[in-house]
Amino acid sequence: MTAIEYALAAAVLLLLLPYFSSLLTFAQNHLLKRSTITEYRLSSRSYALVTGASDGIGKGVARELVKQGFNVVIHGRNREKLASVKKELQALGKGTDVRILVGDAGEENVDWVRIAKELEGLEITVLVNNAGGMPIPPVPFDEQPYSSIESGIRLNAMFPLRLTHLLLGPMRSLPGPTAVLFIGSIASELPPPYMEAYACSKSFLQTLARSIAFDERRLLHSRVQVHYVQTANVKTHNGVHETNSWDTPGAESYGRAVVRIVGCGSREVCPWWVHAVQRWVVYSMGEWMAENVLLMAMPKPKTE
Question: Which of 37, 71, 108, 130 would bridge 52 by S-S if both were Cys, CB 3.0 to 4.6 A apart?
Answer without folding.
Answer: 130
